[in-house]
């Protein structure tokens, strides 16, 4: 986490602050990008309100999950001031004006093969086939609007990398027709 306090010299219609770092894997399954650079930014509209807290995320920007299982990713986008937020999936960025483009069967609306996005919270779910392993990238933009007036106050972009791994420890499956006359015991403890 990078944190700093910046005093802006005067009011302006908006300020955009961004950073590009070489922190993204160069082998991304849903893009043909060869550059491991990622870009995140925030835009502050400071003529609308002088003091404001930007939206924050309570969820992690990186995750390792297993293929063949439904994954529910909880973004946890909230605004500390109680202002309204709008969450959208966007193209991840490689620099200020260069998008990280999806390849073949992937897109903004489908960065995974099965993808459901909740625009109110930014949470999403997906389930990839057992052999669909690798690293996948998705980006979201959270726009903040002043409660009551609807004036836009800020935007924040978050870049998320999810690693899908194949887990060989699968839930056992009973053969068709059951276990016949063999003894079977299934037990468990308390949760």
Descriptive overview:
With 191 residues, the protein is mainly beta. The protein contains no helices and 13 strands. The strands form four sheets. Strands 1, 2, 4, 7, 12 and 13 form a six-stranded mixed sheet that branches. The two termini are 34 Å apart. The relative contact order is 0.23. The model has no long low-confidence stretch (mean pLDDT 82).
Q: Any chance you could write out the topology, listing elements then pairs?
A:
Layout: E1 15-22, E2 37-44, E3 56-57, E4 62-66, E5 71-73, E6 77-78, E7 84-90, E8 93-95, E9 98-99, E10 115-117, E11 124-126, E12 134-145, E13 152-165
Parallel strand pairs: 4-13
Antiparallel strand pairs: 1-2, 2-13, 3-6, 5-11, 7-12, 8-9, 10-11, 12-13
Please summarize what this structure is.
This protein is mostly beta strands.
Q: Quickly count the helices.
A: 0
Residues in helices, as a percent range = under 10%
- Going by helix content, strand content and strand pairing, the class is mainly beta
H and E order: EEEEEEEEEEEEE
Summarize the main sheet.
Answer: 6 strands, mixed
Q: How many angstroms does the end-to-end distance come to? A: 34 Å
Give the percentage of residues in beta strands. 35-45%
Query: What's the pLDDT, averaged over the residues?
Result: 82
Which outline best applies? elongated
Q: Please compute the radius of gyration using only Cα atoms.
A: 21 Å
Flag low-confidence runs.
none
Number of strands: 13
């Amino acid at each position: 986490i990078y944190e700093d306090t910046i005093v802006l010299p005067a009011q302006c219609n908006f300020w955009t602050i961004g950073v590009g770092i070489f922190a993204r894997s160069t082998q991304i399954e849903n893009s043909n990008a060869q550059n491991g650079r990622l870009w995140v930014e925030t835009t502050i509209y400071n003529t609308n309100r002088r003091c404001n807290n930007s939206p924050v995320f309570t969820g992690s920007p990186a995750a390792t999950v297993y293929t063949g299982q439904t994954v529910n990713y909880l973004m946890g986008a909230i605004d500390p001031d109680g202002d309204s937020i709008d969450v959208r999936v966007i193209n991840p960025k490689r620099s200020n004006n260069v998008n990280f483009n999806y390849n073949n069967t992937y897109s903004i609306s489908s960065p995974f093969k099965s993808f459901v996005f909740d625009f109110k919270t930014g949470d999403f779910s997906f389930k990839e086939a057992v052999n669909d392993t690798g690293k996948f990238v998705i980006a979201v933009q959270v726009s903040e609007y002043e409660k009551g007036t609807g004036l836009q106050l800020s935007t924040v972009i978050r870049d998320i990398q999810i690693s899908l791994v194949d887990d060989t420890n699968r839930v056992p499956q009973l053969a068709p027709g059951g276990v016949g006359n063999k003894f079977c015991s299934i037990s468990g403890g308390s949760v």
